[in-house]
Structure formats: structure tokens, C-alpha cells
Amino acid sequence: MFPLPQELRIGAVRLDFPVVQAALSGYSDTAMRLVARRLGAPYTLCEVMLDQFVLQVRERRKNHHIMHVADEEHPVGGQLMGADPVQFGPAAVRLVERGFDVIDINFGCPVKKVLGRCRGGFHLSQPEVALEIVSRVRESVLEHIPVTVKMRRGIDDSSASRDRFYEIFDGAFHRGVAAITVHGRTVQQRYEGPSNWDFLRELKQHAGEKTVLGSGDLFNAQACVDMLRTTGVDGVTVARGAIGNPWIFQQARALAAGLPLPDPPTLFEQRQVIAEHYALAEELYGAERCVQPMRKFGIKYSQLHPQHEQVREDFCRVKQPGAWREVLEKWYHADAPGVHFEGHEPNPQQTVGQSALAAHSP
Fold first, then answer.
1. Angle, in degrees to the nearest 10, between helices 267-285 and 30-38
2. Other CB atoms within 10 A of residue 342 CB
3. Which of 46, 109, 224, 290 is catalytic?
4. Catalytic residue status for 46
5. What is the pTM of this model?
């Protein structure tokens, strides 16, 4: 067992707690990130953005939510994904200009359409290209801006894949990245099977003083603390476990301080945070356009309600602006204990680039 780290450093960025929110395609917009920060996350990452889209998108009211950074959420990271190394540097510069404090490079996405376009996890099969991307990003942004990488532990479990992983991992640090996050599954596994925490422990021993964050199977606060203690990584990134459960960061802080696991949020506490989240989304997207993204968040929040199946069904029916308030009035009108969510995300592909990978009109 390893001692729990008291803080996390990502280059010049110093965080007071080593449990952070990962980039979540289609989810981790400004609204989700702000709620997570207010409930204990010391650092969050924006949903992944295509390099070419970052370079082409125009400043329009309908695009206000894209690359938006709120004053209160610093430090915040922007994650880039793409195929052509040449585009990564200029895209990174634009993200910094928009207010992102850290640039994260995605070498981990396992989605079929992403791999087919030579993006995300595909780069784990071509170390030379991956390291050229790292170099171009590091050389394009100012020295005080940390550059980080998100990886999986390889394309598959072959020895050749393992060799390519370490070539990229070691090479990225040599080229100046501040930290690397590693998911304990392979690209081939996608979201199936357990995350290999033994690999993360071996990797951290290999990395020594270099900053390594772990990812995979962090669906509750206890899992976050367990990964830190059993692998020795410097921090962990919570992905699907944070959707609809931003309290996971408060709970992890309590466990790390040696306190008992806090009770799940009551229905009144849930109602307050859901309403806060909706208000932030309405400000970000407008009342009409926030309906679709907030419907899927409502579905996730329902996991903490003792009658979650019925609540989920009602959130699924929300189609009109303001209709979510009727769900709150129906299911959260009286206070009662909530429940801890212990299971896995029922449809992991929902976290895959719904917005970032779509064909936005610039």
C-alpha cells in the first residue's frame, strides 16, 4: 500500500487534491465543470476537441459554449485530438488564447470511427507520429503552459504494443510533457473488462518522480482512494463516475482525510445541484438548446434517487424548455435520503465524442 498523496502538481499547476475530473466527450462542458469544481474537484478537463475544428470554428452566438472558460474554473485543461501533427500546434495556441491553462493530448479514445480516422488511440500504433504531435504542441505554447497526454496501456496486450506504449510514454516525458494519464484498459478492450491497476503500479515504478495519473473503473469515491493506495500513482482522473455524481469529489476528499464515507446527498441536496446545473446550462446554451444536453444529465442524476428508474423515465421525456422543473417538483419536492451509485455506466458509448466529433458548422 502506498501513502495517499496530499497534492498533485502538473508542471506549474499546483492542485490541493489528487482526484480530478477527466475530459468527457459530450459532457464536460463549462456547466458540468463548474458544478464539479464547486463540489470539490480541484481541476477539470474540457470535452475533447478536434484540432481542425478548433482552428475553423467562428465566433458566433450559437458557438458560445465551445471553448468557453468561466472565470471561476481555473485551472482548467483543454483536450485536443486529431490525425495531422501539423494542426496540433496552432490548435493548442488557440485553446490557450481562449483561457485554457493546460493542453492535454488525446492518445486514448478507443471509438471505432475515431480509430478509423487515425485519431485518438490509433496513435499508440505509431510512436513517431505521436511524439511529433507532442513536440509540436510543446514547442507551440509558452513554457509555463503544461502539456499533458492521455493514453491507454496499448493497442492490445501484445509485446509489440507494450513496446510502442513505452516508447511514447518515455518519449513524451523526454519532449517536455508535465504529466501523463494512463487508462488501465487497452484500446482493443474499449470499455469492456476490468482496468488493469497492476499495470498502473508497474508503470509508476518505472516512471519514478514523473507525474502519472491513473484512470479506469473509478465509479465511486472509495475506488479513487483505492487506486491511489494500491498503484502509487500521483493522481486519478474520474470520467464516467462523475457524470450525474459530482459529489464523488467531496466524498473522495473525506475518505482521503480518514473520515467515514459521507452519506449520499439527500433529495433536497440533489435538487439544489441539479437546478444549479440547469441554470448554468441555460446561461451557456440558451433555454431551447440546453434541453438535449441537460436531459442526458438528468438521466445520470437520477441514479442517486431511491426511485431512480421512475425518475430516469421522466427525465427521458423532457423535450421542452423548463420541463425539467416539473421532474424536480414531482420527485424532489420532499426531502429524503439519497442512494450511493455503485454500478457501471449502462451505455459507455454515450461518453464518446457526441459533440466534439460531430460535423459542426464553423
1. 140
2. 10
3. 109
4. no
5. 0.92
